[in-house]
Structure of Zf-HC2 domain-containing protein:
Amino acid sequence: MLMCRDLADIASDYIDGELTNRQNLSVKMHLMMCKHCRTFIGNLRASTDLLKVHASRQENEELIRKIDERVAEALGARKSESDGCK
């Protein structure tokens, strides 16, 4: 019988589909009986999905350019204000 700590050790492999059929069956049997591990696997799966979505985003070049321009303007304005104080 698979124990909770054993499941925690192989949880990522389970989500990634890298377990043997026998291991996969043991995990599924354990999950049927253990609410805490079902929650753990659900949270791990949601976190993994969120990271995949975040990692696949393309950079928005236009947005980055606008941010760079605003930062440069703000720094230029700050420099002008400090030059006037001398």
